[in-house]
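Backbones bend. We report:
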Amino acid sequence: MRISPLVGIGILVGIVLLIFIFKGRGQGILPPHEFAYGTALSDCRAIPERMDKFLSIADMDPDQIQIQTFVGNNSEKNLKPLIAYISTQNHKNLGTLVADLRKVDELPNQKEKAIQFVKALLPYKDALKDESHQDEIIVFVYYGLKQPSKLSPPTRARVSDLVKQLDSAKQAAVFSSGECPTNYLVGNINVYPLALENTSWHAIAKFASPKDAPVLEIRFMGLRGIFKYLLDEMSARTGDTFLHLDGESI
């Protein structure tokens, strides 16, 4: 949740890399917005179930789903940094978790890998818990909506209306053209292995839930209208209410 100096260095390096990536693709320098919204869940077992529902929203682009693990300022697009960290911990029950994570890391489907990774953590969440350092180990689950030209007609019309309402006229025109810069469309779910419940957000957001209820944290870097569509879809599917956590508001 809150960024430690060590993780801040890693994120700064990541931002610099993003600048070069977006310049190279001719898609603008930085994403237009940064939002963080969350919902409080009944228990930790609901985390992978909700992640599955979110990543399965109609017209989500399966090619955009990708996990990336940050441990300090080291990152890889797999679970290896996390596995290496857990392997150094002196806890007799974590050997089985390491073996389970190695199996999960071999899964070719990124969505399934993300879901099974969280399921593997569930029995060990208390053994791993170290909330004071939760931001030093984060697994990002990246996602993105399909390009407007590839959306189903009902979805395209609905998202287009939301973009016209919530974003600039220029951004709405780009969306209506059928081809957006990738950074209009993408975001990430944050998973904290050292604090799977992610309950520190209760100090900021007034959830109608007990203070120990786990919080699913979803971030988005693109257009307001697109993120509004995604959160509305999740609420319709699950009945969950999403509250603003950090960054800009929709």
Q: What stands out?
A: Strands lie at 35-40, 66-71, 74-76, 137-144, 186-191, 215-220, 243-247. The first strand starts at residue 35 and ends at 40. The two ends are 19 Å apart (CA to CA).
